[in-house]
Amino acid sequence: MRVEDRLRRSADRDDLPDPRSVVAVDVGGTTTKAALVGADGRAVLTATTVTGSGDAAVTAVADAVRGLTEAADDLGRRVVAAGVVTPGLLDERTGVVAYASNLDWREVPLRDRLTDALGIPVATGHDVRAAGLAEQLFGAARGYADVVLVPIGTGIAASLTSAGAAVAGATGGSGELGHIPVVADGEPCTCGQRGCLEVYVSGAGLARRYAARTGRALRAEQVVDLVGADPDADAVWADAVRALAQGLVTVTLLLDPAVIVLGGGFLASGDRLLAPVRAALDAGLAWRAAPPVRVAELGAHGGRIGASVLAFRHAGHGDVPAAWDAAALVGRGAAASAGA
Q: Fewest 10 Å CB contacts: which of 111, 125, 147, 269?
């Protein structure tokens, strides 16, 4: 089936009561995911491309936005802005990415380059902070002004929200929870420090530590499956739980969040992680109650939803996401694909 045929059916179905749309882009180290998002917050059309590095990564983002903008024109939609969220150290005031190791970016004026190339307003943001915004507005932290979101995957970062505003920090580098030292003179981290949280808790860290004990190369999820049946898996898992709880204790005492939201691949372990982490967090806060620990509701959609909100706001259409129905943002009306 041709892309044009899929797009036409999408237009017929939606009837476009409000043609305002944005292109939301979530830039990853390997792939870049983009979506044409309508005024109801739903992804109408999606595209996934190889990110590349350096200038090629900027070009990949621009091409993704350009392709979806052209598709929007065919649908009678009006793209008012693009929202692009990336990893790394990003100054959200200027749109300059000071450093993103996986993308080989240093001092890249991303917002200006994309605005010049595309001719539409472009909002830029940090990928984890964008996901945190989405969870605060539409997900597990709805209704809370003080929130910590911690996605746990290959590494660990955190989105920090205080009094309803994202905490970016002086250099855009806030939320590096994975590099808080939690074990004195602990194992070396790739960042150059020792004893960092993500050495023990991340997917890569769990797999590496299990392999070091056993000589067996397993994926993190395979190690988790062995918990309760393998003493070595039990040991590295217990270290992970202790390290994560200690990190959350630190964040709680510093920021006093009303809720902590955990996301990422580790959460597939369910109560095997949540129950002991909640108990250890409670035990680590001797003189105050622990905040509730919840599971992220938006999953992999969080970055896209956050980027969409940033785009509409940047274009002066903040009324659009303010009216979104949280239940309609994920899982309803599968978007067509615009290729790879």
A: 269
Residue range 246-280, pLDDT digits in tens: 999 999 999 999 999 999 888 878 888 999 999 99
Tell me the C-alpha distance between 84 and 162, whole Å.
23
Round to whole Å and give the CA distance between 321 and 48. 24
Which residue, chain included where needed, has tokens 């994975």? 178
Largest Cα separation within the chain, whole Å, is 62
d(CA 22, CA 41) in angstroms, rounded, equals: 9
Give the pairing type, strands 78-86 and 122-126: parallel
Whole-number Cα distances in Å, 284 to 242, 244, 281, 314: 10, 11, 5, 41
Which structure tokens are listed for 321? 């996401």
Helix (H, G, I), strand (E, B) or coil at 307: helix
Q: Determine the length of the chain.
A: 340
Instruction: For residues 79 and 334, give the distance between their C-alpha atoms in angstroms, rounded to a whole number.
Output: 20
Q: 34 has which bridge partners?
A: 25, 47
CA angle, 153 as apex, 242 and 253 as ends, to 5°?
45
For residue 124, CA distances in Å to 75, 147, 212 come to: 25, 21, 40
Residue ranges in the chain modelled with pLDDT below 70? 1-16, 331-340
